[in-house]
Amino acid sequence: MNEESVASLVKKHRVLFACTGNTCRSLMAEFIARKKFGVIIEVSSAGFCPQAPRDAENAIYTLKTLLNIDASGHVPRDIRVINVDSFDLVVAMDSSVAKQIRERFPTYPVQRVLKWRINDPWGDNLAEYQRCARAIFAELKNLPVLKGQQ
Fold first, then answer.
1. Of 5, 25, 72, 136, which residue is least crowded by CB atoms under 10 Å?
2. What is the pTM of this model?
3. Lowest mean pLDDT across 3-17, 41-55, 105-119, 132-146
4. What pLDDT is recorded for position 47?
């Protein structure tokens, strides 16, 4: 049985990565998680103030050059129009985003919001985007939905 067949037998956990513009941190987290975990979990990303797709160029470039991940089709999404309750876990890229999640979605269980401390590289140099991607990659090993699935 291949990995995809096994994954179809088990309920996939759904994880939403959230940040401000969905052009840097949450975008990179979504695509890195997708590559790292394949079909084990279902991942998505969104932001509170989604930016234009061109604003994601540095993150997309970083993913391609650092990890050989093609995120060129990414279109920033607005978290406010997503059914957040359909996700098992929401990963906020920083405490400000976690606060916005609690305020905007007061019925979403607080224990299902994971707060990371990932600095936003938006508008910075490519070295900061690379640092951000590496920090995200390191944090992914601690996702609670992966306990017992790796």
1. 5
2. 0.90
3. 3-17
4. 97
Strand partners, 89: 15
Residue among 8, 15, 36 at smallest CA distance from 150: 36
pLDDT digits (tens, 9 = 90+) for 73-89: 999 999 999 999 999 99
- How far apart CA 30 and CA 17 sit, in angstroms, is 6
Distance, C-alpha 136 to centroid of its chain: 9
Q: How far apart are CA 68 and CA 133, in angstroms?
A: 12
Strand partners, 90: 16, 113
Instruction: Please give the backbone phi and psi of residue 63, each rounded to the nearest 5 degrees, phi first.
Output: -60, -40
Q: Which amino acid does the sequence have at 122?
A: W
Instruction: Please tell me the distance from the alpha carbon of residue 20 to that of residue 26, in angstroms, as a whole number.
Output: 8
Distance CA 9, CA 51 (A): 37
By the 8 A CB rule, do 18 and 47 touch? yes
Q: 103-137: per-residue pLDDT in tens?
A: 999 999 999 999 999 999 998 899 999 999 999 99
